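S.,

Sequence below, as promised.
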Amino acid sequence: MGKQSGQNKPTMAEQADRHALYQESVQFPEAEVDFMSKTFQKLRGRKALSMKEDFCGTAYLATEWCKSDPERTAIGVDFDGPTLDWGRKHNLETAGKDVAKRITLIEDDVRIKTDKVDVTCAFNFSYCLFEKRDELINYFKTARESLNDDGLLVLDLFGGTECADVLEEETELEDQNATYIWEHVSFNPINNHMECAIHFEFDDGSRMDEAFTYCWRLWAIPEILELLEEAGYSKSRVYWEEYVESDDEDDDELEGTGEYYETTEVENQESWMIYIVAEK
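The prediction came back faster than expected:
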């Protein structure tokens, strides 16, 4: 008997590209480029031209940085060779030769010595994989050495009252016919060790479990600020997202605007994501 039509057809999960899904669901490079550009201009009175993206993965941010200005250059550092290769093919090459030639990708530990830049960044909480204070101070020191004299280190960090909870959050990805699922798998309050995972569920019912997994420490803001000071940074600033009332009359929750302001005192929230900017 012949195969029925559609039999053994690959599922949407089997056909999906996890890196493309990650870029659409997790990364917002245009917003990050905008924040770094505006903050550097305000603090230093000049345009930031060179950037190093630590834990760069597919170098999506490095590519957008160079696309934003023909004078800009970027260095991307990551130890995962296949992920860097994916980024070369899908981000650098598609951006064109003019952009690609201004990006240097390095397959290595982020604590290596590189050329100096105006801005070094570590986003998506990637540096939190350094769970011991000596490891994190060492990273902050080597990041500082990579900066020009007026350079900035820019980090993001998440927290809030629900961050220690085991939970799942879902976001629809209409362009991918999929749902992005962020899961807090476990949390140990004794050492703040946290395990998280990203899954994708598709409209045909198929699922990509543990597309990405993370084991890291949920560092607190004052801990990061103190370690940056110990690492030799002259000043560190916290930038908090501005929230406004929802336009939906039935929704009494506040909505983030995507705009960040420097502050030293706020009310805690169920969930927040901040930027920390450290001056060399």
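The chain has two domains: 18-159+220-279, 161-216.

Coffee later?
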